[in-house]
């Protein structure tokens, strides 16, 4: 629509920053006021789009089958482990995770990792299925966004699953949902302000277990504080480079 000069929407709201990057790269995004983006955590401030909530990549593991010390600190090392792994390769968040791995580790290392993981893994349709498979003991450990485990444990507090985090690699990437203003004026900006209000951010943290990105809002219970994690430094818009990832997979 942008290329054709036709816009039928005031906003573009996406659950993953890969698609946000495609919109901003196409020049369709309108700049946002500084006072709006200043509400966000410093490492999530962008001039042409606004993150809404965050999600961290995690390693859910079965607490009866795996001890924490068995889990390597590097997600790359899981390829050489004897752990049975659950994954959802067709799921968009997993593909963004692999894209981040490509950017950080290179295509050759990522391709080798995928081949090795495939030898001792079980595929699921989505990452909630991965977490449920881990809890049932079908696999030892899995790859999933944090909120699937928290949602499962909210309904089943004694579930045999806990979260582990890798360090400084794609395995602990903090991704975000985001929104872009496509038209000028107060309407799109005010809607973004509403999404960043303490009321909405608190609701999303409490009910959806998303990570609030506005300063001063508590994160969901059961998740390690972001300050204790070591996610890789990355411009999330680079995750729009998805085609090479799909070709690799």
TrEMBL record:
Protein name as it appears in the record: ABC transporter substrate-binding protein
Transmembrane segments: none
Gene3D superfamilies to which the protein is assigned, alphabetical: Periplasmic binding protein-like II
Pfam family, one: SBP_bac_6
Keywords of the record: Signal
SUPFAM superfamilies reported in the protein's UniProt record: Periplasmic binding protein-like II (SSF53850)
């Amino acid at each position: 629509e942008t290329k054709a000069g036709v816009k039928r929407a005031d906003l573009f709201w996406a659950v993953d920053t890969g698609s946000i990057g495609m919109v901003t790269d196409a020049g369709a995004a309108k700049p946002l006021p500084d006072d709006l983006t200043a509400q966000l955590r410093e490492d999530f401030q962008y001039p042409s789009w606004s993150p809404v909530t965050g999600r961290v990549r995690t390693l859910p593991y079965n607490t009866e089958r795996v001890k924490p010390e068995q889990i390597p600190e590097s997600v790359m090392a899981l390829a050489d482990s004897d752990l049975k792994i659950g994954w959802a390769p067709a799921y968009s968040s997993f593909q963004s995770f692999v894209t981040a791995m490509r950017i950080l580790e290179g295509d050759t290392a990522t391709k080798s990792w995928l081949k090795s993981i495939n030898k001792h893994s079980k595929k699921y349709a989505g990452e909630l299925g991965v977490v449920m498979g881990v809890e049932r003991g079908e696999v030892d450990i899995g790859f999933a966004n944090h909120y699937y485990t928290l949602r499962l444990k909210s309904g089943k507090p004694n579930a045999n699953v806990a979260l582990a985090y890798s360090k400084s690699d794609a395995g602990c990437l903090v991704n975000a949902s985001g929104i872009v203003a496509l038209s000028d004026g107060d309407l799109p900006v005010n809607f973004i302000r509403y999404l960043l209000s303490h009321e909405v951010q608190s609701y999303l943290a409490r009910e959806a277990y998303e990570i609030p990105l506005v300063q001063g809002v508590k994160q969901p219970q059961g998740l390690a504080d972001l300050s204790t994690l070591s996610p890789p430094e990355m411009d999330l818009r680079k995750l729009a480079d998805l085609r090479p990832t799909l070709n690799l997979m």
